[in-house]
Structures are given as C-alpha cells and as structure tokens.
Amino acid sequence: xxxxxxxxxxxxxxxxxxxxxxxxxxxxxxxxxxxxxxxxxxxxxxxxxxxxxxxxxxxxxxxxxxxxxxxxxxxxxxxxxxxxxxxxxxxxxxxxxxxxxxxxxxxxxxxxxxxxxxxxxxxxxxxxxxxxxxxxxxxxxxxxxxxxxxxxxxxxxxxxxxxxxxxxxxxxxxxxxxxxxxxxxxxxxxxxxxxxxxxxxxxxxxxxxxxxxxxxxxxxxxxxxxxxxxxxxxxxxxxxxxxxxxxxxxxxxxxxxxxxxxxxxxxxxxxxxxxxxxxxxxxxxxxxxxxxxxxxxxxxxxxxxxxxxxxxxxxxxxxxxxxxxxxxxxxxxxxxxxxxxxxxxxxxxxxxxxxxxxxxxxxxxxxxxxxxxxxxxxxxxxxxxxxxxxxxxxxxxxxx
Amino acid sequence: xxxxxxxxxxxxxxxxxxxxxxxxxxxxxxxxxxxxxxxxxxxxxxxxxxxxxxxxxxxxxxxxxxxxxxxxxxxxxxxxxxxxxxxxxxxxxxxxxxxxxxxxxxxxxxxxxxxxxxxxxxxxxxxxxxxxxxxxxxxxxxxxxxxxxxxxxxxxxxxxxxxxxxxxxxxxxxxxxxxxxxxxxxxxxxxxxxxxxxxxxxxxxxxxxxxxxxxxxxxxxxxxxxxxxxxxxxxxxxxxxxxxxxxxxxxxxxxxxxxxxxxxxxxxxxxxxxxxxxxxxxxxxxxxxxxxxxxxxxxxxxxxxxxxxxxxxxxxxxxxxxxxxxxxxxxxxxxxxxxxxxxxxxxxxxxxx
Lengths: 400, 353
Hints:
- The complex is a heterodimer of chains A (400) and B (353).
- Chain A is of the alpha/beta class and 400 residues long.
- Chain A has 13 helices and twelve strands.
- Chain A has helices at residues 2-23, 51-70, 90-104, 114-127, 156-170, 186-189, 192-202, 220-227, 240-252, 268-274, 297-306, 316-338, 345-353, and strands at residues 36-44, 77-85, 108-110, 131-132, 149-150, 177-182, 205-211, 233-237, 258-261, 282-285, 381-386, 389-392.
- In chain A, helix 2 (51-70) crosses helix 11 (297-306), helix 3 (90-104) runs parallel beside helix 4 (114-127) and helix 5 runs parallel beside helix 7 (192-202).
- The radius of gyration of chain A is 22 Å and the shape is globular.
- Chain B folds into two domains: 1-45, no CATH class; 46-348, ABC transporter involved in vitamin B12 uptake, BtuC, CATH 1.10.3470.
- The relative contact order of chain B is 0.15.
- Chain B has helices spanning 16-20, 26-45, 48-73, 81-98, 103-122, 130-150, 152-155, 176-199, 201-211, 213-218, 223-249, 259-272, 277-304, 308-312, 315-330, 334-348; strands spanning 161-162, 167-168, 171-172, 251-252.
- With 353 residues, chain B is an all-alpha fold.
- Chains A and B meet through helix 1, helix 3, helix 4 and helix 6 of A and helix 3, helix 12, helix 13, helix 15 and helix 16 of B.
C-alpha cells in the first residue's frame, strides 16, 4: 500500500511539472504605463561550493535594488530584479540562464564565479545579453572571445602585477623572491602566466610555484617544498578556506614568508576562519570595507538603517555586490536614454560602454568601460590585517 | 479473452516474426505514433523556455541510456560518466574548432573516440568487481580531467574551448527549436538502438554477465569481450551526449565534467530504474526537471512566507537526497517499475488476480 501512495504522489508531481512548465510563457517584453521596463537577472551562489562569499555578494545586489526601489527608483524606468541560486552547478546555471533568457526576457545578467561565467560566455555573446560577474579573469578581456562579458574590478592578473610592483618598491635588503600558491582550476591558474611574465619584465624573481587544492585541509608538504627556496613573499590565489590552511600550516612550520592574497583570499571571512593566524597577512582590496568612512557608504548606511541593520552586519562582499548592481543600473540608465522602445541587451551593452570614470564614492575604484575594454579598472589597494581588522595601506593605484 | 482496453490477454502470436516485433500490439503502435507526434509537434505549442528545458532533458536521456547499458544491463558500475561526457565534448571541440571538421563528422567521431577511451578504462573490469571497479572508474574521472587540464596545447587547459552550433548548408541550428529537433533525432535513434540491444544476443550476454559472471563464463560467454564491449557501447552514447551538450552550450571547460555530474547521472538511472531504457529516460527527465519544479514550489510559497526563500534555497539538495533514499527503500525498480505497475493494474482491472 505504501508504494501505491508513493506512486500516486510521484505521478502527481510529474503532472505538476508539466502543468507548471507549460504555463510559463515568455512575458518579458511589452509594458504597462509609460515606463520603460527592464529585467535584470542574478545568478547567485548561496548553497554551493563558493556560497560563503557568494551569499553576501548576492545580498549586496538585493540591497541595492531594494534601496533603489525605496528611493523611488529611476524616472521612466521600471527595473525588475530577479535572483536565483545556482549552487555553483554548471547545469543549474545553464537552466536558470535559459529561464532568464526565454521566460523572463532579461536584458542583462549579474553573474558570479568562474564556473557560470565561463559556461555562459559564448551563449551570452550569441544571445546578446551583457553579463557582469565577479570572476576577474584576464581572458574575459579578450572581446573577440567574450564580447558581452564585463567585470568592475581589476583582473586577477592586474592585481598580481600590482602586488609585484608593490613588492619591488617596498622590499628592503637584496632582491625580493616570490612564490606563487594557487589551485588547479580556471580560477587558480588565471593570473599565473601573466604574473610570471610581469615579474620577469620588472626583474622580480619567481622562485617557486605550489599547487594547493581549493578544498585542501593540509598544505604542509607544499609549504615544505616552498621553504627550500625560502621566498620573501608568497602570492596566494585561493579562496578563504585554502588561504586559512596555508596560513595555519605556515605557522606550524615556522615559515616567515610574507603572504599576500589576491582579492578572493581577502575579506572579513578570512579573519573569522583563520583568527590570530591572519594577523599581518596582506591582501588586495578591490572594494571599500564597510567600516571605512567614504562618501559612497552613506546611501548604503541609509538603506541599512531602514532595515534595522548596521555596517557590522555586512562585509566587503556585500559592498562588491552593491557596487556591481550600481554599475549595471548606470548602464541601464544610459541605455534608457538612448532608446524609447524596448531596452534590449544590445542597448545595455552600449549603455555600459558609455560609462566613463563613474565615481563610486570610494566604494571601489572609478569604473570606465569602452567598446575595447570591459574591465572596469586596473586599480586596487593593498591592505593588511591588524588587530583583527583589514586596514588599507595604499591608495587605489594601478601597476602602470 | 480481451481486457476492457481491447487488449488481447494471452499469447496469440503464430510466427517468430510476430513474436519479435517491437510494436506487437495495436495499442503500442498507436502509442508510438502519438509519442512521435508529441515530440515533433511540441515546438509549435510550447514556449521557447520549455523547448530549451526539453533539449537538456533529451540530451541527459542519451547519456543516461548509455550509463544504463553499462550499469543496468551489464552490472558494471561506473563513476566516470562526467569525464566521459568531457571526452565527447572535447573531442567534438577539437575536431570542429581546432581541426575545422564539420559537426556532422565530429559527432559520430566524438562517440567513437569516447567509446575507445571508455573501452580502455573498461579493461580492469575483468579483474575488478563491485566497489573495486567503482574506485577504478573513479580514477578514470580524475585521470581524464587531469589530462584535459594539463594538455594545454590540445585542450586549451583550464580556460576551455569555444564551439559553434552545427550548420546545414547556410542554415545554423542556433535557435532552441532547431537544436531540439537535432537532439530529438539523436535521442530516438539511441533509444531505438538500446531497446533492440536488449533483445539481441549481445544484450542477453550482458544480462548473463550482470546476474552471475562466473555462470556466464561457464556457458561460453567471453567475459572480457562483453565487459569491454559494454564499456565501449555505453561510452559511445555518453560521448554523443557530451558532444551534443558541448555544441548546445557552445563551450567546454574541465569544470563542467566534475564528479558531481557523474553522481547526477547515477542518480538518474537509480531513480529511473536500473536495466530499463524507458527508466533511463524517465530518470533523466526527473533529475533535470526536479530543480525547476522545486523552484516553482518555493517561488509560490515565498509569496506567502516572504522570508522563506533564503531558508528554502537549500531545499533542492535536501529533496535530491531524500528522493534517492525514498526510491532505494520503497521502489528499487525505479520510475520504470512504477510505470509498469500502473499499466499492469489497468490492464487487468478489475480482476487484478
């Protein structure tokens, strides 16, 4: 009897699928009233492998769109923001992308990591939907291959070059030696060749490279190998988990190398995970820290107040999400100015490419897109952990 | 005697030919025609979004049929499906993008290349069984992905490769509908082949190997030949699915073929029904559509309970796990078994005994 009940349950479920799926017809275009309608979709990672940083990033976007709505929105524009969790699964990203494109008729997408960005970059190009992600991979700069991809911060390669530049300028006593610590994924390998080329160009010696898995719980053997070359600095291209492992094992093995993380290794989450071990760890700051007193933070604080929250409830990833949404809305605004009809992905592309020196009030470096460059900036700051807090030690600067 | 559905109860066939016919009753013939009509007329009624979903379901079905030939028919477990999909995808990408062959040559070649590599990784199956074989195929998963990542000159390493949609003359299959038709044809051919495979000498040998390989060997079945053959045939379909998927998403990258893809395909055949072609198809549809349905449910719930969406975002993983456990406990035969139970119930109604 049990199995029959279960059977009918399943049949019911299957029927539901078909009814629900058939009922969803495309309704993206066409509008009511005089407002131009535009829909923006977010691919968020909340429950997946990179959910620790993905969740605040997508919340930051939600916050910005809610703030925009609470302040009355933008004249003549009716922006709908959709967000869905793809759990860092490529197949889910593909499915949600189809849903955004065919059912919701989105004009632009705010993506997240290397996985979804790489998986969709060819499709967004042929469907002409701008795609802005937090994957700052240098190869997305190649507009022949990825003409519809954008990112707002400095690419991993530019971050690495800036770190080398800083090492060269600030190292005392002899020639500095550097090791690279990264993982064997598209994300991990992305800046490595560029960093090596630039090191050679400016005369900083890369003495060692170690591959440490993203989910590694032990890095002692790699660190022992690295220690044989005794580098002065170690550049880390990892997320928080692996960075914590590296810092812990370096402490165990008494390694005195100064570690410097690129932006994915940096953030409040690292301090939470690594605790005291993170003291003195340096890293790339692409965005403002919530507790910094910068003019751009005012509207965020205004929003947080309205939600009974404070800056203690958000972190740098929230700020990054807020900023990416703000930049996207700026592009949509430009697109709306240029056309009276429906705002297509092409219009948004042109709108984004019209953004020049967009001042983000210190939340991030000013953003410029052109039809030749879809990386918003090359500028970063360097920061260091002191007394359990990140502190910026340089101003926004690029390696050039 | 006839049932109320007008079906003959009992065996009235008078020739071997009639006995072997695939569509051996009028109802089956009518059903087949309706099924074909639904498949080919669907794009006229359904939305673009729905067609896109169906394309994904159909491509997964081809892969699931492939895996079921190996795991369901021959009883050799494989946790390397993800990597074999990758072999198919990359073979297609290298043949079309780097070497300039047309898609129509690359598709079968991708299948054949995957079959050869699958056959190679099947060789240990002669000595290894059960858990040990599972681990050996797990090794295939990692070895293949390692090679894809490191052989940069051939595969472009971790940055992946770009593919184009296939063309017929000047017409590119860039729309959802045209690609759906292409996948549907490949799907029908695969299903037809697999259904016939079961009825052939080879298929029966596969079953014999699954049920008791020692006994099969005593009966004169060459274990080595049939086990490797199962790996090769299975990998051929997985390669075809990989190639179709790669041309659909127009990009391949090692990150698409991780171990979780393998697990998903295993879940498809488990839920659908081991050793059943129909089950593979049901399972593939089920697993592909599960997140869509859950999303709709969560979406409609969050209208009532606004703050729930964050809590329920992890709901999918939970249901995925729960469904597998429930199936293993209550219906190890999978969806296919449920279907045949239902059909039999109506066939014999109202006198079910």
